[in-house]
Inverse folding.
């Protein structure tokens, strides 16, 4: 996909009101702007951070959306691995 095609695709996604994208944006709007574990600040306008940080949505709890920086997520995964053995 070249740059022109990619831009066209983005336009179509915008116009079609893709519910998946809209839901993601809504989650981002309600998100706390720091890591749930270490409280380092999260910049939701930074595409690199949006890509690498992990958002966990728990629909059964009111404030269930939690944000993890890549480092804390990795540590959490290590913890899960070590306890499930
Ligand atoms: Zn963290």
């Amino acid at each position: 996909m070249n740059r022109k095609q990619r831009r066209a695709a983005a336009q179509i996604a915008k116009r079609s009101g893709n519910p998946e994208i809209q839901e993601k944006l809504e989650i981002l709007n309600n998100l706390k702007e720091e890591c749930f574990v270490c409280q380092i600040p999260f910049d939701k306008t930074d595409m690199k951070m949006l890509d690498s940080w992990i958002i966990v949505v728990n629909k059964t709890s009111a404030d269930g959306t939690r944000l993890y920086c890549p480092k804390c997520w990795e540590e959490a995964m290590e913890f899960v691995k070590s306890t499930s053995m």
Notes: The helical segments are 3-16, 19-30, 47-52, 70-83. The mean pLDDT is 83.
